[in-house]
Amino acid sequence: MRRLFTLALLATGIFTGLNASAQDDKSKRPSPPAKVYQELQSGALISIEYSQPSVKGRSIGKDLEPMENKIWRTGANEATVFQTNQEVTINGSKLPAGKYSMFTIFNGSEVTVIFNKVWDQWGAYDYSEANDQLRIKTKATGNSEYAEKLTFDISPDGKVKMLWGGKKFAFAVI
Fold it and tell me: Is the pTM of this model over 0.85?
């Protein structure tokens, strides 16, 4: 009886450990992690780490973020992280080297892109405007190629694009 109890306890411990390990595997999430990076012509290395939600037949702005005039983590799960190894200029404004959470606010055809000093946060729940390093404005346009999954792209000349469903915005990093 004692041996059976020990075996059951050992099996439970192994199962629990494997289950916890599987939960730490972010690639198994419904919105898996993605990363895009690029060395710019200026020599700056920039990267964006984010989680890729899928539209799955839902309506962006109604069933899915971004909602009009509300802060969005610009992805799913943890806040999207923008990193640069040297000072860069984004749409004419300076951003010091560092790691930032990246949020957006959609307001009609205008998008406010926010670089916040607190990069390690879950979603936008703990977002505080007091920690913003930089805010820029850009235009939201229709995306001629529908993007089922949220996708970022960075070109060598520093154009950063976000595609999500039928939405698109871009900004320039130099």
Answer: no
Report the DSSP pairing between strands 110-116 and 159-172: unpaired
Contact criterion met (CB below 8 Å) for 166 and 148? no
Best CA proximity match to 49, nearest among 38, 27, 34 = 34
Answer for the pair 109, 116: CB distance below 8 angstroms, yes or no. Answer: no
Structure tokens, 156: 């060598």
Question: How many whole angstroms separate alpha carbon 146 and alpha carbon 126?
Answer: 31
Q: Spell out the domain ranges in the chain.
A: 1-28, 31-172
- Residue 87 is encoded by which pair of tokens? 């000072």
Please tell me the distance from the alpha carbon of residue 168 to that of residue 141, in angstroms, as a whole number: 5
Residue-by-residue pLDDT tens, the chain, 174 positions: 555 544 444 444 554 454 444 457 877 877 899 999 999 999 999 999 999 999 999 999 999 999 999 999 999 999 999 999 999 999 999 999 999 999 999 999 999 999 999 999 998 889 999 999 999 999 999 888 899 999 999 999 999 999 999 999 999 999
Residue 71 contacts residue 105 (beta carbons within 8 Å)? yes
**91 φψ region: left (φ > 0), alpha (ψ -120 to 50), beta (else):** left
